[in-house]
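REVIEWER CHECKLIST
Item 1: Sequence provided? yes
Item 2: Single chain? yes
Item 3: Sequence as submitted:
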Amino acid sequence: MKQAHPTANWPTLCGLAVAGGLCLSSVGHFALTSEAGGFPFTYFVYAAACSEVELDVLTGEVSLHDDVQ
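Item 4: Structure as written out by the authors:
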């Protein structure tokens, strides 16, 4: 999406992604088994993200706030 719209800001990119039917979430899971022979990774990474979204339930209007710090 960013390659197609290189000058677009974050709220615009999110709006384009949603309008294009792209999923904006991700989930992952890994389970160690006895066949793995120990830990397959030497480190684990944790991350979090937050978006402030305002939704008018009467009109369906969505506002993405890019001033969240």
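Item 5: Key structural point noted by reviewer: The mean pLDDT is 76.
Item 6: Recommendation: ____
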